Amino acid sequence: MIHARDLVKRFDQPKKREPLVAVNGIDVDVYPGESFGFLGPNGAGKSSTMRMVGCVSPPSGGTLRILGLDPVHDGVQIRARLGVCPQEDSLDPDLTVFENLTVYAAYFGIPRAVAKARATELLEFVQLTERSDDRVEPLSGGMKRRLTIARALVNEPDLVLLDEPTTGLDPQARHLVWERLFRLKQRGVTLVLTTHYMDEAEQLCDRLVVMDKGKIVAEGSPQSLIQQHSTREVLEVRFPTDDLRDIAGKLTGIGERVEVLPDRILVYADDGDAAASAVHRRDLAPASVLVRRSSLEDVFLKLTGRTLVD
Amino acid sequence: MTSVNVQPAPSPWPVFYHRWVVYLRTWRGTIFSSFAVPVMFLVGIGISVGSYVDRNASLGFPYLDYIAPGLLASSVLQVAVNEATYPVFASFQWVRTYHAMGAAPLRQTDMVSGELLYGAFRGITSAFGFLVVMALFGTLHSVLAPATLLVSLLLGVAVATPVLAYSASIRSENAFAVLNRFAVIPMTLFAGVFFPIENLPLAARWLGYISPLWHGVELSRASTLGTATAWPWVWHVGYLAAWAVGGYALARHRYARRLSD
Questions:
Q1: Residue B57 class from Cβ within 10 Å (0-12 exposed, 13-18 middle, 19+ buried)?
Q2: Is B158 a member of any domain?
Q3: Domains assigned to chain A
Q4: Is B10 inside a domain boundary?
Q5: Neighboring chain A residues of B22 at a CB cutoff of 8 Å
Q6: Cross-strand pairs, A291
Q7: What ipTM is given for this predicted complex?
C-alpha cells in the first residue's frame, strides 16, 4: 500500500540558509489490511510523512509509491482511493452534519443518491445519526472527530490516514474512537495513523515505527519493540529524600539499567520482584516500591529521550 | 456499504456545489438585496440627485438613466469582491475547506474555476435583478440591454480572479480593508459610475482607465442606453478579458503556492 525508500522532506526556512529537514531518509512499507503507526514526539516528522503519503506535499527526495502509484504524477488517482482524517478539523460550520458528508462525497464525484445512502450508513457507524441535521459547531470534540472519520470513509477508501486521531479528546471519546477504528481494522481496511499516545499505538497498531528528528529509530510490533528495547518489567522506587542521585549510585548492579527521575528511580529488570527484594536487602528504606510491566512508553522515552521538544 | 465503483473525475463542479449548498440557506436574503439595493440606489441617487443634475441637462439623458448602468456595474463589482474575499479566505484559513478538497481528488485549478462558476452565477443573477429594476424605472433604451448580462459576467470574472489571487496570498483578513480602501472605493468613485470620467483632471483620469470597472461601466451604458462607448467596444472587452485571463493565471499560481508545501 505504501512503499518508501530514503524518503526526505525539506522545507526552506525564511531567513536561514539551511533548509529544515522534517523527514530525513526513512524506509517504510505498509501492507494491505494492516494497521500501521508512526510514533514520535512533536516535530519528529510524522505529520510531514502523512502529508506526503496523502499526496498534498511532494517529497523532496527518495522514492515514494502509494497504492503502486507515484504521488507526484498520479496524485488525483491516489487521493480518490484514500481516506484522510487530518489533525486540524476542516468540517464546514455552514453545513449540517449530513451535508458535511454528502458535499465531501461530491468532491470524489460520487453521485448524490449514493452519497446520501453512504452518509446515512456512516453516521450510523460513528453513532451520530441523531445529530444528522444539526450544524457542526455545537458538536463536542469527540463528535467532530467521529464525523471527520466518517467523512474520510465516504469514498470507501483502500487506505485510511489518521493524523493524531484522538489528540485533545477526553477518555470516553477516545475509547469510542478506538473502538470504531478497531471495527474498521476488523473489516480489513488498511489504517495508517500517527500518534504520540503509547496506549493508542498498543491498542491499534499491528506494526509501528518510532520516529525522532526525522528518522526512524525503531520498527516492529508493539510487543517486539518492548522486548528489543526494554526489560520485561520495571521497578519504580520512591524515597523520602531529594537526593535520588546518591541513592541511585547504591543501586548499581540491580536490574539491567537504572534511570533517575525527579521524583523516583526506575529500575529496568526482567524480574521486578527480585529487583525489589534486592533493593530492600541494601537497607535503603524506600517509601514505596511498585513493579509493573514494561510498556511502549518506556521504549518511546528510551528511544526519543525525556527532554521536551516543542 | 453501498458499493459503487466511482471513477475520479476532478472538476470545478463540486467546488461550485459546496458553495451552492451554503447558498441555498441564504438565497432569500440575496434575492431581496438584488432588488431592494437597486431600488434604493436609483431612488436615493438617480432620482433625488438627478433632479439637481438634470437642471443643466448636459448629459443628453436623464441622470437616472445615466447613472443606472453605472450602478449596475458597480454592484457587480461589489458582488464579485464579496464572493472572492471572506468566503475564500475562510476556506484557506478558518474552515480549511480547500485543505479538505485537496485531500480529496480536487486540484487547485478546480478550486479556482469552481469559485469563478459560483461568482459568475452570483454576478449574473444580481445583474439580472438590477436590469429588471431598471426596466421598471424605464431606464432601458436599447434592444441590446440583455447584453448587459454578458458585460456583467465579463466584469465579474475580471474582478474576481485577481481578488481570488489576493485572498490566497494574505495571512490576515485585515488586508481586505486595504483592498477596499485602495481599490474598491477609488474605483467606485472615479470609474465613471456617478459622473463622466472626462470631468476629472487629466492626471486623475488614468485611475478610471486602468480600473476594470470603468470599462464595464462604459459597456453597460452603451448596451442600456444605445450610445457609443468611449473607446471602440472591442478594446473595452479586450481589456476586461486581459484582466480575467491574467487574474486567472495569477489565482492558480497563488492557490498552488498556498496549498502545497
A1: exposed
A2: yes
A3: 2-226 (3.40.50.300), 231-293 (3.30.70)
A4: no
A5: 92, 94-95
A6: A235
A7: 0.89
